[in-house]
Amino acid sequence: GTQFSVTTFALMWGVPYLVSAQGLSAATAGTMLTVSVVTAIAAGPVLGILSGRFPLRRSWMVLAIMLANATIWTVVLALPGPAPIALLVLLIVVISVGGPGSMIGFDYARTFNPGSALGTANGIVNIGGFLATLLVVQTMGLVLERLGGYTFDAFRVAWLAQYPVWVIAIIGVLVTRGRARREAGVHPRSSWQVLRQRTAPRRGELADSEENIQRRTSSDTDGGRP
After folding, report:
1. Residue 170 above 80 pLDDT?
2. What CATH architecture is 4-221?
3. What is the pLDDT of residue 3?
4. Domain boundaries defined on the chain
């Protein structure tokens, strides 16, 4: 749910969209892709630090990225004509965070799978974003062909192919994180408590603390050895 939008944009439909539908020059469209790369490089370490410090809030980061992607695309596609250059830059920046954001999936695999199955789990994680990308790329191509090519109106409809993926991914995160927490016996604290109570938890809260989750994560990665 996080990666496919920027991958679809950067590898296939972004430049035709910017040039044919938004009226930018090829050079400006290329600069936009450079902005995407720089954004991804900058966002990667930040997301890594946050997912490490707040392991019980990783799902909220994933949800925030997907909702931000859907929101910025909705704003751009709702316009009756080409978007201002500043809005297009903002679009590129927001969706580009989804690239490094997808790496949280590997952190999930490391946390919830034993070491003996980690290779398989990482493989499943790795194909998720690319499978979604291929489906959206193909669907957009069919829509563009049906609606007459690289026109503004055709692209407005074609980009709507992203929304079903976001819906499925958001539902998937909400459902599976609840199941994972129940199976792990975790009752996460509120965001306010996480920010205010970074000291050692009280005795009754030990099982719910981020520190305890990290210790269990390390044990799982080592194949269950203490």
Report:
1. yes
2. Up-down Bundle (1.20)
3. 94
4. 4-221
